[in-house]
Amino acid sequence: PPGEPGERPGREREVATMLARGARRRDIAAALCIEPNTVTVHLCNARNRVGARTNTELAVKVAVELPGTD
What we know:
- It is a single chain.
- The protein has four helices and no strands.
- The chain is mainly alpha-helical.
- Helix 3 crosses helix 4 (55-65).
């Protein structure tokens, strides 16, 4: 998809933000009314977009962008 490497489409951003705040995959799925496998796909896309190899690395990169994380 076009765009800057750190730019995430809405649902990817939402899933990645929930992950950064400590939510588990199945909790994210339940909260967004989507399948856990769909969460996995969004996380994979978000990791690729920001160059993260793991969900932990993705969570750290996203957490730095969250408000109140000076």
